[in-house]
Design brief:
The protein has 495 residues and is α+β, with helices and mostly antiparallel strands. Helix content is 28%, strand content 14%. The strands form five sheets. A five-stranded mixed beta sheet has the order 3-2-1-5-8, with no helix packed on it. Strands 4-10-9-6-7 form a five-stranded mixed beta sheet. Strands 11-12 form a two-stranded antiparallel ribbon. It is globular. Keywords: Copper, Electron transport, Heme, Iron, Membrane, Metal-binding, Oxidoreductase, Translocase, Transmembrane, Transmembrane helix, Transport.
């Protein structure tokens, strides 16, 4: 009896969870309520079948359980039962599939007044194209795909010149206006899917698929790729913004035309051809999907100010970002993974010229600027009495502003005829003191000179300190009794 009771309780719990579950569909934002209706029909039919089959199994276990004195009846065929099973199964399958066929037929048959928008998918980014004032899109072909023409538009087609290009994963639509989406993929199988619109369509390389919808409410809705298109599939995200008429017209007015982009690329190539080629390569190869150029966080390290920094890797090592580092990393991105990022960057098939162009573009996005240091503060030692006999020089401790600037590059000593050249200042030796002596420091701490202030932490070891830098003041040549000694400029040791 325990198994039938368990099956019955399981069925009741799952049915209750379905109705009381917090996970429901997102609010509908398009005209495709029929999609929800077909889904409801499927859930009802499969739910009824699930309940009926499991309750029948529970009843059969109880009804035909073993009992002393009872024998099972052997019945190899039951035509009446088979007819009922075949008939009910056929009706259920037809009821699930037929509504979907009618809805799909309407999905690919847009109305005559629908606006046209082209959607292009590529690992792992979205691009869009809108027609010009004539409402027509020009022709395209994969043979025209270049770094400065990622959509492969025919430059000789006059209908392409006024087409507006959206080289960003953000598409704006007009609320209440039907839109026909022409979908194509440049590399692998993708799928354009906006959950609140309830519509999705595969994007197959080598062909153009289509669907249509009418946005019914304004807002921002996520674009997802519903096909596993590679390691960056989860990051192939975009946004559809549904606007009212004024906002939509203002957005369209900001979009560049294909002719304007071609002229812009030609001008950029004339001023800095290598960096311009690298920028186009970054867009064409999908680098912009993971690496931002404005400093905002992304899947990979931002390129803004990347050049010249020091990157720390997951294994604890670090490296300076220069041309050699970028070339090695792009060639083999998973050999050393930067700390805080996942090893998902694929290897790019780049020629040596393309690699140099990409590095030149990253270099133009800025180099790491060292933190501003306080201007050098001159140090004036306390004046000695006029009649004092010159004795041994006493060390002068740097000001806090000078100590804070120790991490900066070395500054050359200013030319001064009153200064006597001396060797560069040196740190005290880092000799650990004996841990057993009274009042000694831990072995990881260096011995401090008698009477000096606590040391500064070393850059690579927060548990180790060194005494502050001391610079002896310069003595004037032929000093005049009673005159103030000259100022001594600050000397920063090279890191």
């Amino acid at each position: 009896m325990s198994l039938p009771i368990l099956l019955t309780a399981l069925v009741a719990a799952l049915v209750a969870f379905h109705f009381w579950s917090p996970w429901w569909q997102t609010p509908l934002a398009s005209n495709w309520r029929q999609m929800d209706d077909t889904l409801t029909i499927t859930l009802v039919i499969t739910g009824v079948a699930f309940v009926a089959v499991n309750l029948f199994v529970a009843w059969a276990i109880y009804r035909y359980r073993h009992r002393d004195g009872h024998r099972a009846a052997y019945e190899p065929h039951n035509r009446r039962l088979e007819a009922w099973l075949i008939g009910i199964t056929t009706i259920g399958i037809v009821a699930m599939l037929a509504p979907g066929l009618f809805v799909y037929a309407k999905l690919i048959n847009p109305p005559a007044n629908a606006h046209v928008v082209e959607v292009v998918g590529q690992q792992w980014q979205w691009r869009f194209r809108l027609p010009g004032p004539d409402g027509r899109l020009g022709s395209s072909d994969p043979s025209y795909v270049t770094a400065d023409n990622p959509l492969g538009l025919n430059p000789k087609d006059p209908e392409n010149q006024d087409n507006r290009i959206v080289d960003a994963p953000e598409l704006h639509l007009l609320v209440g206006q039907p839109v026909k989406l022409l979908l194509r993929a440049k590399d692998v199988l993708h799928d354009f899917y906006v959950p609140p619109f309830r519509t999705r369509m595969n994007m197959v390389p080598g062909m153009v698929t289509q669907m249509w919808l009418t946005p019914t409410r304004t807002g921002r809705f996520d674009i997802l790729c519903a096909q596993l298109c590679g390691v960056g599939h989860a990051n192939m995200r975009g946004v559809v913004v549904v606007d009212d008429k004024p906002a939509y017209d203002a957005w369209v007015a900001t979009l560049p035309t294909f002719a304007a982009l071609q002229s812009q690329h030609a001008g950029a190539a004339a001023s800095d051809p290598l960096a311009a080629k690298g920028k186009l390569l970054a867009q064409a190869k999908g680098c912009a999907a993971c690496h931002t150029v404005d400093g905002s966080p992304g899947v990979g390290p931002t390129w803004k100010g990347l050049y010249g920094t020091t990157q720390t890797f997951q294994d604890g090592t670090s490296a300076h970002v220069d041309d050699a580092y970028l070339a090695t990393f792009i060639r083999n991105p998973t050999a050393r993974v930067p700390k805080g990022f996942a090893p998902i960057m694929p290897k790019l098939d780049l020629t040596e010229d393309e690699l140099k162009a990409l590095i030149a573009y990253i270099r133009t996005l800025g180099t790491a600027q060292p933190p501003e240091a306080a201007p050098p503060q001159p140090i004036t030692p306390a004046p000695a009495p006029a009649a004092a006999v010159p004795g041994p020089r006493q060390p002068v401790t740097l000001t806090p502003a000078a100590e804070s600037a120790r991490g900066q590059p070395a500054v050359q000593l200013a030319q001064n005829s009153l200064l006597t050249p001396r060797p560069p200042a040196q740190y005290a030796p880092l000799t650990p003191s004996s841990p057993t002596s009274p009042g000694s420091q831990p072995p990881s701490q260096p011995v401090r000179r008698q009477g000096q202030a606590p040391g500064l932490p070393l850059q690579n070891d927060p548990n180790t300190t060194v005494p502050p830098l001391a610079i002896p003041p310069a003595q004037p040549v032929n000093p005049t009794p009673g005159s103030a000694p000259p100022r001594v400029p600050m000397i920063r040791p090279a890191p």
